[in-house]
Amino acid sequence: MTIGREPFERIYVAGAGSWGTALAALCARAGRQTSIWSRGEEIAGQINEEHRNATYLPEIELPSTLRATTDRAAACEAEGILLVVPAQAARDELVALREATGGAAMPVALCCKGIERGTGRLMHQVLKEAWPEALGAVLSGPSFAADVARGLPTAVTLADPDESCGTRWLGTLATETFRPYYSPDVLGAELGGAIKNVLAIACGIVEGRGLGESAKAALMARGFAEAKRFALGMGAKPETLAGLSGLGDLILTCSSRQSRNMSLGYEMGQGRRAADVIAERRTVSEGAATAPVLVSLARERGTDMPITEAVAALLSGELAVDEAIADLMNRPLKIEG
Ligand SMILES: NC(=O)c1ccc[n+]([C@@H]2O[C@H](COP(=O)([O-])OP(=O)(O)OC[C@H]3O[C@@H](n4cnc5c(N)ncnc54)[C@H](O)[C@@H]3O)[C@@H](O)[C@H]2O)c1
Ligand SMILES: O=P(O)(O)OC[C@H](O)CO
């Protein structure tokens, strides 16, 4: 396998939130001709004129070569697209991009971590339906936007069923401080990223409620057990779950209140209603939308996911924190696995 040959030289980033802006800055600094699409004129103007995204990544000076646009036609010039909108907006964005590019067979790296409400589809399945000609890959793993934008060392998974396209993505994204590892396992990479967001809400609740570090460690380990049970049942590979996009991202997201999912849980643990916290935020907490979908998928498949069930019930207000803890602790004793 020859890694890193023939990078995509022209990149279009769909979404100018924190992660889209960090990835666009990474590509531009690596010398790629990079354009970033924003829904709003204000952010596009700021990026072009002040080299800053004051709404989503205020501390970071962006490269002056990065061009922002509100016109999806810019995607026609690209050799590769990074899709970085919230998971619930992915389908509409992909349909619009397909139209803008005339249904080109474009490499598209899916960077959102979530499962679609209503359909239960993963992002690569949404891509297949919304833009069947596109060549899908998944970029996932432990990576806070602010860390990547600052150039702090980061390692992630780039999953692509097509090895030659995957290695082109590696060559496109790799820098001295950003290290993507190749995997063919798109399903595993996606499931790890989507499920850890739900588990991070649970860890936040434990921290917000002051239940202690032992409880948090137990929750992470049992959460990982249920993530693995579900993902392996779907056909994901165990090594992907144990890797950066699975365990790696679970550890990061459950450990830091820099995570929007973890901090949402923290506020819930402090007694706030999830809906109120979500309503006052500008940024997305993907786990809140993914939790109920994951519960439905797990029930359909007969997979036991008690922590995910508890998070969904807490988010909807059906259950109080203390009731959820008591339910989890009083489940029948069983063999670990
Ligand atoms: N921020 C991170 O550190 C990080 C890291 C890795 C992965 N991700 C994933 O990347 C995805 C995007 O996260 P983010 O952090 O950039 O979110 P964000 O909340 O910072 O920004 C979301 C962006 O999407 C746009 N958007 C919102 N609704 C939209 C719609 N209906 N149609 C089109 N655009 C819409 C917003 O205007 C904004 O530009 C999420 O799935 C997240 O899990 C984030
Ligand atoms: O802020 P969060 O919870 O969306 O997490 C960001 C990234 O997914 C961490 O890898």
From TrEMBL:
List of residues binding NAD(+): G15, A16, G17, S18, W19, G20, A145, R260
UniProt keyword Transmembrane present: no
Positions annotated to bind substrate: K113, R260, N261
Catalytic activity: sn-glycerol 3-phosphate + NAD(+) = dihydroxyacetone phosphate + NADH + H(+); sn-glycerol 3-phosphate + NADP(+) = dihydroxyacetone phosphate + NADPH + H(+)
Residues that hold sn-glycerol 3-phosphate according to the record: K113, G141, S143, K196, D249, S259, R260, N261
Pathway: Membrane lipid metabolism; glycerophospholipid metabolism
UniProt-listed HAMAP family: NAD_Glyc3P_dehydrog
Membership in a protein family: Belongs to the NAD-dependent glycerol-3-phosphate dehydrogenase family.
Function noted in UniProt: Catalyzes the reduction of the glycolytic intermediate dihydroxyacetone phosphate (DHAP) to sn-glycerol 3-phosphate (G3P), the key precursor for phospholipid synthesis.
Protein name as annotated: Glycerol-3-phosphate dehydrogenase [NAD(P)+]
UniProt source species: Parvularcula dongshanensis
